[in-house]
Amino acid sequence: MMTFSPLHSLAFAASLLLMTAVHADPLQDIGKLIKQGQHAQALDQVDKYLSNRPKDAQGRFVRGVILTEMNKTGEAVAVFQKLTEDYPELPEPYNNLAVIHAQQKQYEKAKQSLEMAIRTHPSYATAHENLGDIYARMASQSYDKALQIDSSNSSAQTKLSIIRDLISVAARPVPRTDPSTPAKPVIAEPKPVAQVVEPKPLEPKVAEPVAPPKPVSSSSEVTKAVENWAASWSKKEVNSYLAHYAKDFQTPGGVSRATWEKERKQRIAKPGELRVDVENLHITTESSDKATATFRQHYRSAAFKTSSNKVLNLVKRDGKWLIKQERVGK
Amino acid sequence: MKILSIACLLFASVAFAQPRYSDSGPEPLLARVVEHIEQNQWDKALQQLDALIKAYPNFRLAHLIKGDLLLARARPLKSFGEGGSGLATQDKVADLREEVIARLKAYKNKPATNAIPRYLLQMRSDQKHAVVVDTQKSRLYLYRNDNGTPRFVADYYIAHGKLGTDKLREGDKKTPVGVYHVTASLPRQKLTDFYGSGAFPISYPNEWDKRMGKNGHGIWLHGTPSDTFSRPPKASDGCVVLANQDLDDLSKSLQIGLTPVIISSSIEWLSLDDWQAERASLLKMIDEWRRDWESLDTDRYARHYSKKFQSAEQNLTEWVEHKRKVNAGKSWIKVETRNVSMFRNPGKDEVVVITFEQDYQSSNLSNIMKKRQYWIKEEGRWKIASETAA
What is the band of B72 on the pLDDT scale with cuts at 50, 70, 90? Predict the structure, then answer.
């Protein structure tokens, strides 16, 4: 099982917001539509956008993302394929091609695409993570054959990270867009790809952190909190794990906090390896100090293995996001 | 560093003798895969594995190693088959681990070409082949009768009883140890898929087994179900199980009612010289027994029989008395032994099984019969403990 980068949606959101800061961009509105799940409208808009500038890499890329979301796999493949031909130095189209191949269980093809993405940008973290996942899935297929088991149900639920935006290219050579400390808006400005391809050395002031737009900050902080929560659980760091829960955490069944903590400690302290992975993390921020994290939780211990949908209601207290409620979701 | 440490641990102990490619099984490729893993040449290992899987699509072991190789790129592995080892599958992974060890050990430690399993003392001239099984090594060795000298032909991976060897009772899930022969051939059409490409029942329990109070039946050499290339080393209810293609290969050499199948938990090997010496002394002993019988001197004749001797109805005393009476009524006896086969029984007790055609003529009676004797070592001398019509 892999941990998946939940950053894709963040990077996406971040880029949109940062772009707004500079100038209104039709792609920003399209991004909103995608986020709201209005894919058909988004597709209309992007087609309109592209009718004036048919070569625009950013627009074509967004179109590919929309088609992917709409499960128009063949068309999406064609878009990304053409992008890899026109801009072979961009890793994102390769990555997204790989994601689609993987969805179709064409792991060998997916692997090749990711290797191309990495060849263009050796430090491209998402492609590395996705490649790791491809290997894990290929391994899983082999194990199925070796042991006559069927793990297709669990592996079908994992999803590789699709890249939503070419922003990461614009931001290079900064290793990775970190939405919590975004660089100055100027770098997020969509540029003609020709310029993007030869990354300019960034001026020092560019790297200076500025106060990020609020929602981005919150959701990235929440992401961090959820990841840390899962990590401390995996590492059996009980105290650190429990510290992720708010004082007024609603214990399951309404038992006392002490009882609940005792039970958690016993559970987690059990011998053997433990691994908790978070996948498909979605954060909704209701206000600056309230957020909901929805994700698929993969739990694996020496004796037990399960995957379930989790919903965490988090609150921000003294600058820290804490879990107020934890439940198994739909 | 991601290392398939278990693979290294497992195989570091297996000596790298210069391999001889005597069979067409998966071992040569499998050995190369492991060598590549040991040298951290993962891509090459994966290429060899793909070739192996292409040749043996249902070879679960190859799929497991491939799983490890792939998963190792996603995360570090600590043990063999780790990614596939859940609660429900850990036994299967352990089985495959045993299989890979068994296959590679047998492949890398093949017997020397001039070594002969001690048991094959003498084959009949019409016994074209002999089969010797080593359960500890999970290996079956096929020998050809080259004018009386056994010559190595091929060896194959086999599975045997879940609970090991030395079968004693019906249903004990053990494989018998002893000297048997193939008694029948059951074609695939008459069997369920479980037995794969066919089956060859063997003669368990033999006379000696019965005398030792052993029971049970239905010990076969047979093939493998279609959904797998091979089974783990200890998987059967007592049968000896081969891969289908190996069984097909082997079946060409099996003669019904004739081909010896000797099952040992651990084969003892002799050099050609030692084998010749042991064989000559036993043949001499048979000849002494024959001539002493012809001498009509009952005491001389009786010295070849063990205190534990048991014929169908008589113990030694009764039997000697009977012979004395018979001999008294004769003026001459002439005994010839033809088509003598002689096999040593595997195990700690020294037992030799001798089967021959006996042409008996005397002043008042003649007959020809097939006879089987079990000779045992008693006070340093070979003595007959059992003598029956075969």
Answer: confident
Has residue B142 got a pLDDT over 60? yes
- pTM of the shown model: 0.67
Cα A294 to Cα A312: distance, rounded to the nearest angstrom: 7
Residue B45 has pLDDT above 50, yes or no: yes
pLDDT score at A208: 34
Residue A191: predicted pLDDT? 32
Distance to chain A for B221, nearest Cα, Å = 25
The average pLDDT across B188-213 equals 95
Name the DSSP class of B285.
H
Closest residue to A135, CB basis, from B60, B64, B71: B71
> Of how many residues is chain A composed?
330
CA dihedral over A37, A41, A44, A45, signed as positive or negative: negative
d(CA A98, CA A162): 9
Query: Which DSSP string do the residues of B123-191 spell out, in sequence order?
Result: --TT--EEEEEETTTTEEEEEEEETTEEEEEEEEEEEEETT-B---STTS--B--EEEEB---EEGGGS
CA distance A18 to chain B (A): 34
Q: Which domains does chain B have, with CATH numbers?
A: 5-108 (no CATH), 116-270 (2.40.440.10), 272-389 (3.10.450.50)
Residues in chain A, pLDDT under 70? 1-24, 150-159, 165-217, 302-305, 329-330
**pLDDT surpasses 50 at B10:** no
B104 in A contact zone (CB under 8 Å): no
CA A193 to CA B36: how far, in whole Å?
43
Q: What is the pLDDT of residue B86?
A: 74
Q: Given an 8 Å threshold on Cβ–Cβ distance, is A143 in contact with B60? A: no
Nearest to B63 among A2, A145, A303 (CB): A145
Q: Which B residues, 226 through 245, put their C-beta within 8 Å of a C-beta on chain A?
A: 227-228
Tell me the Cα Rg of chain A: 21
Q: Which residues pair with A280 in a beta bridge?
A: none
Domains of chain A: 7-210 (1.25.40.10), 217-328 (3.10.450.50)
Structure confidence at residue B132 (pLDDT): 98
Contact A146 B87 (CB under 8 A): no
